[in-house]
């Protein structure tokens, strides 16, 4: 029996448009789900570039009118991969049209927008592309936490360090304009760190933050740093910047608990460092684990143990899990409500930096 087709429309032809397109093309190669994504139409503002992207990734049609596409009765899924300031308008229109809605992170540019978006899709399948949850090493860390291998958490440290803000030859893009991005590294990088922290260590209660812009005349933050208090009693530090010269894409965390430690860096995404405080003192030391199986997350979906995967597989796994939940009727995470939780933390960070005080996460 043939798998049920699922007609996809994506709004966005940039980096995330490519990453999502690849996931739609590849997901059936790795995940056994009774749904067949059909790349129906890709929307964007540049017709010439759209034609090239469509030909490269196999989209059947192109359109520069996303509103018309959202209303089409033959479209099942609308994937919002446009600049942040457009997420709410597009997702709300898609939800109103009865579509399954997927959205890039951050969910919105404000809590108010996020609340309206989450309410609009409530009760219907939805997804936010916080893809790093699907890095096997991060998913395995979640398992270690749930098994009690970390114990009572004392410290959570996270950094997202990039260097491209310091490149004078880089053309200015929408991520550097508040009117389109809503913020700088706050929404672009810190949102990933916060989602991972909520996934691994639970709710954040309070934050004390500072935001800084290095480039003259720029109206978004180039660097954001904060202290955090978690609901479980642990304390955290977070740093996100585009001015960490020497770091290309260092998305990293450390968790220190009463029974162990876990350390991860996306630049070496197949590995996880783990320390077991229960070992004999003369045998204690960090274990450099290659998290590609056996008995690791997604080991049966991708390659044999020891055969590494890449950045694109995090999107493929996110989509594979979503389609599995869609076919079974199970709930999927992270959804719009999860992403709204991230948005509330980001709002507290921005408020704290502005008012120069500790702020409670609403």
Ordered list of secondary-structure elements with their pairings:
Blueprint: E1 4-11, H1 15-30, E2 35-43, H2 47-57, E3 61-63, H3 66-71, E4 77-80, H4 87-96, E5 100-103, H5 111-121, E6 126-128, H6 136-146, E7 153-161, H7 178-181, H8 185-201, E8 204-212, E9 223-230, E10 235-241, E11 250-257, E12 260-265, E13 271-276, E14 287-290, H9 311-328, H10 336-355, E15 359-360
Parallel strand pairs: 1-2, 1-4, 2-3, 4-5, 5-6, 7-10
Antiparallel strand pairs: 7-11, 8-9, 8-15, 9-10, 11-12, 12-13, 13-14
Helix pairs in contact: 1-9, 4-5, 5-10, 6-8, 8-10
Describe this structure in words.
The structure is a single chain. The protein is α/β, with parallel strands linked by helices and 362 residues long. The protein has two domains: 4-129, NAD(P)-binding Rossmann-like Domain (Rossmann fold); 132-332 and 341-355, Dihydrodipicolinate Reductase, domain 2 (2-Layer Sandwich), CATH 3.30.360. Helices cover 34% and strands 25% of the residues. It contains ten helices and 15 strands. It has helices at residues 15-30, 47-57, 66-71, 87-96, 111-121, 136-146, 178-181, 185-201, 311-328, 336-355; strands at 4-11, 35-43, 61-63, 77-80, 100-103, 126-128, 153-161, 204-212, 223-230, 235-241, 250-257, 260-265, 271-276, 287-290, 359-360. α4 runs parallel beside α5 (111-121). It is globular and about 65 Å long. The N and C termini lie far apart (49 Å).
